[in-house]
Specification:
Blueprint (H helix, E strand, L loop, with lengths): L3 H22 L9 E6 L1 H17 L5 H11 L3 E7 L18 H6 L6 H19 L3 E2 L3 H10 L7 E8 L11
């Protein structure tokens, strides 16, 4: 017999793995894949939550929401990280949507290629729609991504979002203080 707690833990992990696959197969600008993903559980998840509390404390009164989000990470069974690298796509004068004349100008100005956040948004939409279809509670959190970035968890990816996953009688990600 597999009890409900064990079955729910396994469902969260199975979904986390599927979310990583969904992010990988989500459409990418110009067909260039600069995304990366990871699943955090156990000690790695605790380290992430601790980094969030440290970050929140460093922000004083304005960081209370980061500490609140860390409690949501604690209450989750797993956290999925989805990130993208800030690299141009080599479209140069054809694009210029970044506001610069070409990709080299964008890079030298320290600006961001518009396709990085677009690719991340599409991957996130694919990920959370899969979570919703699986009836697993979830929420996209930039605070998780910020802490993950500070910890260097996705290497070159500096634009990161996190998705905590939970199975409980009431979602811990809503009706928050």
């Amino acid at each position: 017999m597999i009890d409900s707690k064990k079955a729910e833990e396994q469902a969260v992990l199975n979904l986390a793995y599927a979310i990583c696959a969904a992010a990988r197969t989500a459409p990418k600008a110009v067909g260039i894949d600069l995304t990366d993903t990871a699943v955090l559980i156990g000690e790695d998840k605790l380290k992430l939550a601790d980094q969030m509390r440290t970050l929140g404390s460093s922000l004083g009164e304005g960081g209370k929401f980061v500490i609140r989000d860390a409690a949501n990470v604690d209450a989750s069974g797993a956290v999925v990280l989805i990130g993208v690298k800030y690299k141009t796509r080599g479209l140069n004068e054809i694009c210029c949507m970044c506001g610069f004349s070409n990709c080299a100008s964008c890079t030298s100005a320290g600006a961001t290629c518009v396709f990085a956040p677009l690719d991340l948004g599409i991957a996130l939409g694919s990920a959370v729609s899969l979570a919703a279809d699986s009836r697993i509670d979830n929420r996209i959190m930039f605070t998780i991504g910020k802490a993950a970035s500070l910890l260097g968890l996705l290497g070159e990816c500096t634009l990161i979002m996190g998705i905590p996953l939970s199975v409980s009688g009431k979602s811990p990600f809503f009706d928050r203080n």
